[in-house]
Amino acid sequence: MTAAATRPRLSRWTKLLYGLGEFGPSVAGGTIIPFYFLFFLTDVAGVRPGVAGTLLLVARIWDAVNDPLVGAISDRTRMRLGRRRPYILAGAVPLAITYSLLWIVPTGSRGRRSPSTTWERTFSTTCS
């Protein structure tokens, strides 16, 4: 018999619990960011719609390039904690901080909110 045939099968409950581990990231990254963040940028932060859409497009392109690279790096990682767990542990706190910072509108130089100018300057200097 092969090694795969001798392993016990996972119960439906175990499979469900494994699937729930992806529920939070998929809700945050798959629902909130694409739908609500665009409205937040345009309606709350005052960013022009074209700039907001371009910002989200650049983020998706970055994911398309970056995700396979990080996957290849994690595939080659050999640590006591495993291949993926060190990256998950190292990224949990920075992910929580940066995700919460997404929803903060910066203030202008005179103490009042000037989000459109601030966000557009940040975006244009980052991309140029």
Q: How would you characterize this protein structure?
A:
By secondary structure, this protein is mainly alpha-helical. 73% of the residues lie in helices and 0% in strands. The chain has one domain (23-105, 114-127). It has six helices and no strands. Helix 3 runs antiparallel to helix 4 (49-76). It is elongated and about 60 Å long.
In short:
The chain is built from six helices and no strands.
Q: Span between N and C termini?
A: 59 Å
> Main β-sheet, in a few words?
none
- In percent, how helical is the residue content? over 70%
Number of strands: 0
Query: Count of helices?
Result: 6
What share of residues are in beta strands?
A: under 5%
Gyration radius over CA: 20 Å
State the order of secondary-structure elements, H for helix, E for strand: HHHHHH
Mean pLDDT: 78
Query: What general form does the structure show?
Result: elongated
Quaternary structure classification: single chain
Number of domains: 1
Derived from helix and strand composition plus strand pairing, the structural class reads mainly alpha
- The unreliable regions are none
List the SSEs and their pairings:
Blueprint (H helix, E strand, L loop, with lengths): L2 H4 L5 H9 L2 H22 L4 H28 L8 H17 L13 H13 L1
Helix pairs in contact: 3-4
Descriptors for this entry?
single chain, mainly alpha, 0% strand, elongated
